Amino acid sequence: MKMPWQAQPISGGVTKWILILGFTAFAALYIWGRMYDSVEVELGGERFVARIADTVDKRAKGLGGSDPLGQHEAMIFVFGTSESHTFWMKGLTYPLDIIWFNEGKIVDIAPRVPPTNPEDPESSYPRYAPRFDAKYVIEVPSGTADRLKLKIGDPVKVILEE
Question: Whose C-alpha in 4, 20, 56, 131 is 20 to 30 A from the C-alpha of 110?
């Protein structure tokens, strides 16, 4: 007699698909972790683990299509020259703060930048550019700049090794 609380065996076909999906998810997370090296960045006395976007392809992709950042997660964009690097939020589904810095100091902040509507034409997406040239840009969760009371001139420390 079968009791309602007894576990039912899973058929071999379902088990196979569960294993395939689990392996695929693991492989995707592993590849994502390998695609982007990371570094720690200190802002306003707090440390963030920042994925590094240091190639044309990585900078173009940015955080587009990613899950929202955790409270101490970030992406740091590394450019070869100090210029007015302009950003837009293509493919981003959540708001964030953009912080431009150069020589270890914040040069501009775009707080609470909203995501774009994917149904809008790309030509209508707002562009965000700093008032002063920068070689680096860090994107952090929306509200971080306000929470940490960040301002132009504040230090940014990139921690390469401890």
Answer: 56
